[in-house]
Amino acid sequence: MPTIMISGPYRFFFYSFDCNEPIHVHVQRDSLVVKFWIEPIALSYNHGFPAHELNKIRRIIKSNQNNIIEAWHEHCG
């Protein structure tokens, strides 16, 4: 499961079996996990993150959107 290098307390990653879905990224901190679609940026599901932290993660994704898309294409083809 490839991890995208973005600084901070979060791990941004993909699952290989998700390559047939639209571009998205999973984000984890401790036991909390969220999935965001990338184009357009939209919440897919959330397991435990509070709203203020989801907003922070969304901003991080927005500022790294091109890197995430590039990493997706490198991994999924």
Q: Describe it for me?
A:
With 77 residues, this protein is of the alpha+beta class. It is built from 2 helices and 5 strands; from the N terminus they run βββββαα. It has one domain (3-76). A 5-stranded antiparallel β-sheet has the order 1-2-3-4-5, with helices on one face. It starts with a strand and ends with a helix.
What is the residue-mean pLDDT, rounded to a whole number?
93
- The helicity comes to 25-40%
Number of helices: 2
Residue windows where pLDDT falls under 50 for at least 5 positions? none
How are the SSEs ordered, and which strands pair?
Layout: E1 3-4, E2 11-13, E3 24-29, E4 32-37, E5 42-47, H1 51-63, H2 65-76
Summary tags:
32% helix, five-stranded antiparallel beta sheet, 77 residues, alpha+beta
Give the gist of this structure.
By secondary structure, this protein is α+β, with helices and mostly antiparallel strands. The chain has helices spanning 51-63, 65-76, and strands at 3-4, 11-13, 24-29, 32-37, 42-47.
